UniProtKB/TrEMBL annotation:
GO terms for molecular function: flavin adenine dinucleotide binding; N,N-dimethylaniline monooxygenase activity; NADP binding. InterPro entries: FAD-binding_MO, FAD/NAD-bd_sf, Flavin_mOase-like. The keyword Zinc-finger does not apply. The lineage of its organism: Eukaryota, Fungi, Dikarya, Ascomycota, Pezizomycotina. It comes from the Eukaryota. It holds the Pfam family FMO-like. Keywords: FAD, Flavoprotein, Monooxygenase, NADP, Oxidoreductase. Its cofactor is FAD. This is Flavoprotein. Gene3D superfamilies: FAD/NAD(P)-binding domain.
Length: 489
């Protein structure tokens, strides 16, 4: 019989009170209500990404009908909304299900150690950045995403240290920044830059987006006609299901068409872009990407606000290479100079797995990047731990939910079979036979720079990366959970 010291504090500990953590907590309550759990989060409030990022105009880059939870459908009229609304939605969702009572804020997990003697995870936790405490659990769910919340990605910008005006990274946006009537240059062309430009242009004197190469930027109505009709003629429950299904199908169709017919997709996007540009402005060189659609994430702008700012004359795009930055200017390779008051370095985010937690097994360090991911959810050689990863070509929430349902299925089966430990394994021969493939199928700069932090993946099941929601959900509910997995009593 186990002694008191050998008993866990919780059956499951969830790290992260963002979308992944809250969704898993719901699934756990729904499918294994007998299990005790707690959520640990280093921040002061619910939200994760939507609590951290506070730059002007921050919004979802996926529709809220699929970005919202399946168990608490999005009922707002707009499909793309401001980050503060998303955070409030997460808070309300957690409160509705009593999940908020399970969260311990300002509890930062520094270290996780698996003890083979007790078959438990030991947590080293910093509370309020001062007090240290320990907890134990049988199972861990990491809802920490793959961004570094402490340190932004520093782009390689020649001479940036010379600039005597303000230099700001969107991840560290000052709440008191006054940019009214200022000349602003945003360096970057990703979703953050495309969100910032129309927001800053409202009060700034002028905003220039300085890019090395263009991105695909699609205009999406914030309130669609189909959504309005469905919401008016169907009961709310039915309307929610129809709209969620519509957006799932739309996302799958768009990504599939882009990958199967990249030339046709590129022509379509460029035609739509040309319609939104000011008269006399050509697509070249500022609006024709060098890559195929969905080799990088497609950027969305609600109601074409990005293009509206350009048409108004309050914003512009410059495609060029930075030669150097002086105390008061940006010198470009073309010979042109820009004279900003503020430089915003929207050059991407730094990648970091597991929230930077040091993971050890019986005191021996464990590196996620050295191992293969089983079903894109558990790590080879890492017992009783699920890592939540969403989609890059669809809503994050869909991927997080398929992972959560897989985790709940594993927990249920462990209980029914009297199993205390599950751990993905493969033989040396099996490993040698695997043909590796990228864990994330994106060519974005931040992925290329930080991609070595991701787990390994292969073309062979069960070591494949995520594919698309319905396939992953089918695997989570009915797929083989024995292959590549040790079940230990």
């Amino acid at each position: 019989m186990a002694t008191y010291k050998e008993m866990p504090d919780f059956d499951v500990i969830i790290v992260g009170a963002g979308i992944s953590g809250i969704n898993f907590a719901y699934r756990l309550q729904e499918r294994s209500p007998e299990l005790s759990y707690s959520i640990l989060d280093g921040r002061h409030e619910i939200g994760g990404t939507w609590s951290l990022f506070q730059y002007p105009g921050i919004r979802s880059d996926s529709d809220l009908y699929t970005f919202g939870f399946a168990w608490r459908p999005w009922t707002g009229k707009d499909s793309i909304v401001h980050g503060s609304i998303i955070r409030q939605y997460l808070e309300d969702s957690a409160a509705q299900e009593g999940i908020d009572r399970k969260i311990r804020f300002r509890h930062k997990v520094n270290k996780l150690n698996w003890s083979s003697s007790s078959n438990m995870w030991d947590f080293d936790i910093a509370v309020n950045d001062t007090k240290m405490m320990s907890l134990r659990s049988r199972f861990v769910f990491l809802g920490t995403g793959y961004y570094d919340y402490q340190e932004p990605l520093q782009g390689e910008i020649p001479g940036i240290h010379n600039f005597q005006g303000k230099v700001i990274h969107p991840q560290c946006w000052p709440a008191d920044l006054d940019y009214a009537n200022k000349q602003i240059v945003i360096i970057g062309s990703g979703a953050t830059a495309i969100t910032l430009l129309p927001s800053l242009a409202t009060n700034a004197a002028h905003v220039t987006m300085l890019q090395r190469s263009p991105s695909y930027i699609a205009s999406l109505p914030s309130r669609g006609v189909f959504e309005a009709i469905v919401s008016n003629i169907l009961p709310r429950f039915a309307a929610n299901r129809v709209l969620r299904l519509k957006w799932m199908l739309f996302s799958l169709f768009m990504v599939s068409m882009c990958r199967l017919f990249p030339r046709a997709a590129k022509s379509f996007f460029l035609r739509e872009t040309a319609k939104l540009l000011p008269p006399g402005i050509s697509l070249e060189p500022d609006f024709v990407p060098s890559y195929k659609p969905w080799e990088q994430r497609l950027c969305l702008c609600p109601d074409g606000d990005f293009y509206a700012s350009i048409r108004s004359g309050k914003a512009s795009i410059n495609t060029d290479t930075i030669e150097t930055i002086t105390t008061s200017s940006i010198k470009l390779a073309s010979g042109k100079e820009l004279h900003p008051d503020i430089i915003v370095t929207a050059t991407g985010l730094k990648l970091r797995m597991a929230g930077g937690i040091a993971i050890t097994i019986d005191g021996e360090p464990y590196e996620i990047s050295d191992h293969f991911a089983w079903r894109a959810a558990m790590m080879e050689g890492l017992p009783n731990l699920v890592l939540s990863i969403g989609y890059v070509n669809a809503s994050w929430t869909l991927g997080a939910d398929s992972g959560a349902q897989l985790a709940c299925r594993l927990l249920t089966r462990m209980r029914k079979e009297g199993v205390s430990v599950i751990v993905p394994r493969m033989t040396v021969e099996e490993r040698q036979a695997l043909e590796e493939c990228p864990f994330l199928a994106l060519s974005a700069t931040y992925v290329r720079k930080g991609g070595n932090v991701f787990p390994k993946s292969a073309f062979t099941a069960p070591w494949q990366p995520r594919s698309y929601y319905w396939r992953d959900l089918a695997i989570a509910r009915w797929g083989d959970v024995k292959k590549g997995m040790q079940w230990l009593r």
